[in-house]
Structures are given as structure tokens and as C-alpha cells.
Amino acid sequence: MAALAIATTASPARAQVTVTLSGRVQDAPSGTPIAYLTVQLRRQKDTAFVAGRLTDSAGTFVFTNLAKGEYLLDLRRIGYAPLSKPVFVGELSRFLDVGVLKMEPAAPALDKVTVTATRDEVAGAMDRKSYTVADNIAQSGGSVAQAMASLPGVTVTQDGKIQLRGSDKVAVLIDGKQSALTGVASQAGLENLPASAIERIEIITNPGAKFDANASAGVINLVLKKENQEGFNGSVGFTGGAGSLWSRRDNLPDVRAQRLFTPKLNPSLALNYRRGSTNSFLRGDWLHSPTMNKNEFATRSFTDGTVITQQILRNRRTDYATLNGGVDHAFDEHNSLSVSGLLNREKILDDGDNPYFTGGLSNRYRLWQFLEDEVKYTAFASTVFTHRFAQPGHVLTVTGNYSFHREDEQYFFTNTLPTFTGKDAFKLLSDEHIGDLNVDYVRPLPQGRLELGFKGRYRSIPVNMQFFPGQQSPIDSGAGGRATYREKIPAAYATYVFETPLVEVEGGVRVEQVLLDYDVNPNHNTYRSDGYRYFQPFPTVRFAWKPADNHKLSLFFNRRVDRPNEVDIRIFPKYDEPELIKVGNPGLRPQFTTSVDLGYRTTWGSGSFYAAGYRRLVDATITRIATQAPGSPILYNVFQNAGRSWITGSELVWQQTVSRSLSLSTNANVYRTTIGAFSVLNRYPVPVTYTTNRESLISGNFKVNANLMLPGRIDARISSIYLAPDLFPQGRIGARYALDVGLRKNVQQGRGEIVLNATDLLNTNQVRRTLTGTDFRYVSTDYLETQVVRMGYTWKF
Predict the structure, then answer these.
(1) Is the separation of the CB atoms in 81 and 107 below 8 Å?
(2) Are 55 and 76 in contact (CB under 8 A)?
(3) Taking the CB of residue 750, how many other CB atoms lie within 10 A of it?
(4) Is 721 in contact with 141 (CB distance < 8 Å)?
(5) For residues 83 and 110, is the Cβ–Cβ distance under 8 A?
(6) Which helix or strand (DSSP H or E) is residue 379 part of?
């Protein structure tokens, strides 16, 4: 979307990205290099001198650190006709090659050649917004999901998932790579990943062909912190805080006390050593975060007149440790190798109470209590070999990645009925193996660049689920066993970028073949082995018109896919709620999305304005559908392809520096979600058909961020976030509001930093949901923990 590197108070990174310009000079008749020729670069508007270079023995010249603008290359030598070439430095490529410039002996100058060079970090994909986590002081010290709450176009759901422009089909990368830590076919773990480990968050709403075709809503790239200074250096930090400062609502009868004043601890340590051509780095982060993860009060009303009142209270303790390190080494000026690794351990302990009442709170017919003991391990290794050709920006990169993720989970249940108490349990063990091989090639051209690449992936996830039901148990022991998910994906892409002072064009296509097999326990009482195949092209086209330097109008089109993740098709029911059970569906198929995006951007000396209109058309929409088991109050929430849906919306971002002590940013994202009429069959535990009519709702979010400089050189930040009611198949989510504040003070001559912040200061961020089925209506409000106060200190050495 339109060259979007917007400087907002949401901390976008606007580091000036400069351009390298190169070329070669030859004698026209013989083709031999002209060595030691003076090449001058001048501004085109007034011919003022900018820089001069001598060609080397091969006739090559290189200009570095060029800013955007129009220039002239002047070549002069006795015996040759003078040669002058216009050069345009734009916004799409960090490297530019003007090619071979041939000088004619005592002949007229050649025809003019227009050259384009641009900055890739800022607008290489015309959709990228980059934000520095350290500057987001109102949400610092928590998780990555919390750090993104105030960013434009982003919505954080109650379960810690990220939505971009109304959709959670988002791929999350770490340093540009997919891993099991943050999810491969979908996002995962962002509510626990500490923001202290992240340097920068890049939001890409319109990914180009270089990115995997999966994730129709866009890509979020998390750039890990990594120093590159000479010698030994590093930083140490500690953040502490507390949440659940008071109870929002009293428990229903017979429920254990809500956990209050939950502590938050986040120490971190970073070390770096650089000497000569070798740089080594190591970083460790730990997040200790007990929390009231869920506190939902709900009412289920059935068409037969039955009304059930319930509460789901889940107290969670999470310990999340991450260690990241690596070595970068340059063998020479053309070849380098980077080896890095990441280790992660996440320990989760959940204890919860789930009472059910009918006919009033004096008639409790079930108390379901559970203890979850889960450990997740992740190991990620990456090796990157880079060959740089003699021409600057001409690069071949070969990357090999391996990711391992283990999920070791045990649940212990106590099922208390009026006349009986039973004990139930299950154990799940899942190992995920991912191997990737990437080859990427970039060639600068006279007016743009060419990118080519190949990616091969193999992914395997064997899962073993064992149920141990007690007497009178609601657990379905016939739905356990083993299942293995296997995925093979070869893919290739090509992108061509072209730019002039008036227009920008980017065209690309990614071709993917997906071979997916899902082998399940042959004795499963409902599901059988399944899978799917496809071979599909995913084109990307962008066109931009620039009537002036500070105005740009752009049109973007792409086609993408959302493949079901292994959890989406997992055949095993999940019993953290015994009467609202989540189940996967091995018959689930990918959803394909076509997107069109029209954007306009303008800037002035003290601010900027950006507006976009977009439309996403989704075929075979993936969603959960809840149905009632015949003759039972139990609801089964099963993934299904629900037909066609649309999201049509607009996004506005305005930023203004009001004074030296105040800057403001507002962003609004308004969209209409439409879900077409559909009919699906939930097969588990028995076949039940669900049919619904077309639904539509206007939703969105509005955010205001203010950065202030207070007396004593204290930075302050205020974030106000409003999320409008939203639509999903079968129901709606109510409006939400949060106010976050933060203060920061630099100490010790800038080597130390103290931060104090509070999220959801007014304690208003509650989640209200309404879900309607064929024979029931489910209405709930979740008073989960959202209000947290933190204080942190960081010292750099």
C-alpha cells in the first residue's frame, strides 16, 4: 500500500535509507574499460556538484549514501565526446545499476538514460509500516501482542491474537523467517513472547511475491534486538509490575477466589562482541506473568426453555524464557556467513473453575475444575550464506532453517455432580519439525530491480492424544489416538520493479504447490484420514502515480491463501470447557483471498496524512461453527469452510508535530464485514447441519496517540483505543475501550532508562460476545485481566 513509512507517535521507525549507485564505463568501439576516469554527480535542477569518483581498473564507479532526488552523471575525458546521464533516485530499491556507459571517441553524446534507485526499507513493498518497540512506552514491559495494541490497523483479540484490518489471517515472522515459535500457517504465542526481545515491528498489509502466499491479511515481521558495535557492549534490563488490581465482578457460588495482584517480572540481558570481520551476539529474556487469563460469565438459552448460567475462571501462570544468539562472519568483501539459533521454553500452569446452574444460582448441577500442566519447547536454527557480486546490490542469498517445537500437555479434571464426583484426565504430546531451504537472487537494473527465488519446505507434526475418563465422564475416549500432519511445499517467485519520477510499477508472481496429508487413528469414532493438493499462482501488482514529491496515489492487487494449520484440523476434542467443546476438522480446506487496495499519501514539513480504501474477497471462509448435540446441552465448536465473505473498508492515518513538546497521531480503520449465506455439516460427535442467512455489520477501530515532553525531560505517552462492535459467523463481539499511559526518563548520561506505564488505566476493556445457533443463544462477558501497572529500568554498557 502506498509507500507507507508514516512517522506517527506509535513509534514508526523513519531512519533515512540511502542509495548506492554504480555503473561501468567502456570505450564504445572496442568495449574495453576506461580506467581512472572522473565521474561527477550533480543536482539536475541547478547542476551543483554533489560528489566525484574515479573509475577503477575495470571501469567501475560507485556512489554511496545518495538521498532521493534527480541527478546528472557527467563523464569527461580528452579524446571522447562528453557524456551526461540523468539519474533519478527514488523509493523502491536501495541499489541501482546504470549498466555500461559507452563513450564515443569525438562523437556526439548518447541518448539520455533514465535511472531509478530507491530505498527498500521505507517503501520496498509500498505497504510497510515499521515501529520501534522501545519508543512505545505505554505498553512496554509486556508481551509482543500488548506492544501492538496501539498500532494503526491492528486489533488485539481477547485471546492475544492479532487482526489486521478485521482479519486474524496473519503470518508472523522473526527476522524475516517463519518458525514454530510464532506459528507457521497461522500466528501463535504473541501474548507470551516478551516485547523486550524485539527491536522493531514491521506491519506489511500487502506482501509482495517474495513472501509466502499464506496469510491473506498480511505479514508481521518481528526484528530481534541485535547490536553491531565494535568491541564488547550490551545492555541489561528489568521490568516489574502487577495486574488484577481488583475484582471486576464477584464470582458465582462455589468458585475459588480470583487471583489478585498478579506479579509481572521481565529481566533481560544482551551481550555483543565485534572484532574485525566477526560479530557475535547473545540475548536472554524471561517473562514471569501470572494472570487471570479468563473470567467469563455466560448464559446459554435453548429453544426448549432451558437456561444455563455459568462462569469460567482460569488463573494462569506463565514462565517464558528465550535465548537468542549467533555469529556473523565476512570471509571477504563478497562472501559472508551468518549462523544463529534461538531456544525457548514456555511453562504454563492453569487452574480453573467452571460451575453450571439451571433454574437459578441455588441449583448447581455441575462444577468442572481443571489443572493444566503444559510445557512447550522451541529450537530454531538458521544459516545464511550471502554472495555479493562486484556490482553493488547484486546479491545471491542461500538460507537454511530448521525449527523444532514440542507441546507436552496434561489436563486433570474434577467433575463434581450432585451425587457423584469423578476424576478425568488426558495427555497430549506433539512434535513439530520444519525444514526450509531458500534461494534468493536480486539484480539491480537501470530503472529498478529484478528479484527471483525458490523455497522448499517440509513439515511434519506427529500428535498423540490419550484420554483417561473416570466414571460418568463427559470425555469421549473414542476420539483419541494418534495423528500425523505432513506438508510439502515447493514454491518459486519472480518480481520486477520499475520506477520513473512520475510512476512506480511492481509486478510479481509466486507459484506454490502444496501437498498435505493428514493420517489419523483408524479407530477414531468420527474422522478418517484426509488431505488436499493444489498448484496455484499468486500474482501481485502495484502501480503508483507521483504528481509531486509529497503526493502519491497507488493501486495494489494481490491473491493469497490461508491454509488450515494442524490445530485447525486436529481431530481431538478440547475439554477446558466440558459443555462448549472445541474440535478440529480434517476435511477443512484452504481459503483463497483476492485483495484490492487504493491508497493516497501526502506529507508536509511537520506531519503527514494517509488514506486507503480496500476490499478483500474470501472464498471458503475458515471459521468455527457451534452446534448443539441432539438431546444434550453440550455445544461443539468445529472449524468449517463457511462459504464467501467480504471485508470492505478504509484506513486513515494523520500525524502532526504540534510543537517541540507535543506530537499527535490519530488513525481510524472502518470496515464492513459481510458473510454470505451458507450451510455446513458438523460431523462431530454426530452429524448436525447448520444453516444461516447473509449477515453484515460496519465495524472498525479508532486510536489516538499523544507524545509529550514534560518538565525534567520526561517523555510521556497516552494511547486511547476504541474497538467498535464486530461480526463473526454466528455472532458478534461488543465494543471495547482502553486507555494506556507511560512515562520515560533517561538517566546516567543516556546510558540508563526508567519507564513507568499502565495499560487499561480505566479498567474498561471487557469482552462481550453473542453467539447464535439453530437451537440456542450464548451471551457472555469476559472480565479477564487487562489492567497492568509496570516499572522498568534498562542500562546500556
Answers:
(1) yes
(2) no
(3) 8
(4) no
(5) yes
(6) strand 364-388
Q: Which CATH number fits domain 125-224: 3.40.50.11090, 3.20.70.20, 2.170.130.10, 3.40.50.300?
A: 2.170.130.10
The answer to whether residue 757 scores a pLDDT higher than 50 is yes
Which SS3 state, helix, strand or coil, does residue 19 take? strand
Give CA 728 to chain center in angstroms.
21
- Closest to 579 measured CA to CA, from 516, 502, 633: 633
Fold (CATH) for 19-118: Immunoglobulin-like (2.60.40)
What residues contact residue 399 under an 8 Å CB cut-off, 6+ apart? Answer: 177, 382, 383, 384, 385, 436, 437, 438, 439, 440
Q: Give the Å distances, CA to CA, from 586 to 372, 640, 654, 746.
A: 25, 10, 45, 54
* Nearest-angstrom CA–CA distance, 61 and 36: 9
**Euclidean distance between CA atoms 35 and 56, whole angstroms:** 5
Looking only at the bridges linking them, the beta strands covering 49-54 and 38-43 are antiparallel
pLDDT in tens, 252-299: 998 998 889 999 999 999 999 988 889 999 999 999 999 998 999 999
Region 620-641: what's the mean pLDDT?
91
Give the chain's count of helices (H) and strands (E).
Answer: 3, 46
Burial of 174 (0-12, 13-18, 19+ CB in 10 A): buried
Torsion of CA 49, 499, 560, 443, to 10 degrees: -70
From the list 74, 68, 120, the residue with the least C-alpha distance to 89 is 68
DSSP category for residue 95: E
Percentage of residues in the chain with pLDDT exceeding 70? 93
Cell of 120: 527498500
Specify which residues 717 forms β-bridges with: 707, 742
The Cα 434–Cα 363 span in angstroms is: 51
